[in-house]
Amino acid sequence: MDSGQLSHFLRVRREALTPGEVGVVSSTRRRTPGLRREEVAVRAGISTDYYTRLEQARAPQPSPSVLRGLTRALRLTLDERDHLFRLAGYTAPDRLSPDDHVSPVLLGLLDRLHDMPAQVMTDLGETLAQNTLATAVFGDHTRLDGPERSAVYRWFTSPDARAAYPPEDRTEESRTLVADLRATTVRRGDARARALVDRLLRDSTEFAALWSAHEVAVLRSRRKRIQHPETGLLQLDCQALLEEDRSQILALFVPVPGTDTADRLALLGLLRAGQDH
Questions:
Q1: pLDDT tens string 118-162
Q2: What sign does the CA torsion over 168, 174, 175, 176 have?
Q3: Greatest CA span in the chain, whole angstroms?
Q4: What is the C-alpha separation between 14 and 80, in angstroms, rounded?
């Protein structure tokens, strides 16, 4: 780990970002260029104290998950991300396999979507980035590790994953997730997908039964109902925008027309803004 170069790189990249590029609205004049340290820390999912120590070359080696968070927070390109990992003492992530890197353009789009939840996910259901409303509706899933990173795995192994879904919607949700994972596994044909399926077959009899039915469908659009503890029932049309290789998905959750979901989301946004100040 090259602490000196790492600290300099983080500071330079932070100062090169403008608040508007990451959706930060500031009503006060800034004395220094770029983002504040606390703004980067919040977006990376780490404490301001730890990020400050990284910039001052006083912190221990950051974990790969912290580096992924910094990559998103600082809007790094693939070359910059690889440089960050090497400075921190790691081998750069393999570019030949489906990748978890989210482009700065896509992250900028998330920041500008203020009236609807939106998130970037892999085709295995791993959440890579969320806007503020998506975190408020679904929870923060960007810092999970292991099989729990996958929404499919959590759905079949954790009761908490289903708690916000009306009971009458859960059977169809299970079938949809399994059918999409079946298509994904064959399309990818890699060890990562097979390992997820093998783990689910071992840990969930419900998944195993649905898997044996061999249903296949690629998730593109569907309707979701979420019983949120603060605002009540949210009715959302989910539209999945797929990259050309289908390895990443931009999921948009649009309020269903004719419902009061848009008002409920606006209220939720205000509640979250109040908690952040």
A1: 999 988 999 988 888 999 999 988 888 889 999 999 999 999 999
A2: positive
A3: 62
A4: 13
Length of the chain: 277
DSSP helix/strand/coil, 233 = strand
Q: How many other CB atoms sit within 10 Å of the CB of residue 62?
A: 23
Summarised one tens digit per residue, pLDDT across range 178-188 is 999 998 898 88
Q: Looking up tokens 């489906």, which residue turns up?
A: 98
Tokens, residue 252: 């948009």
**Sheet-wide strand order for 127-130:** 127-130, 118-122, 248-255, 232-242, 221-228
pTM: 0.69
Q: Which are the contacts of 219, defined by CB distance < 8 A and separation ≥ 6?
A: 176, 180, 240, 249
Q: What is the C-alpha to C-alpha distance for residues 154 and 149, in angstroms, rounded to an integer?
A: 8
Helix (H) or strand (E) holding 18: none
Q: Tell me the CA distances in angstroms from 19 to 103, 193, 266, 274, one per residue in order.
A: 18, 38, 22, 20
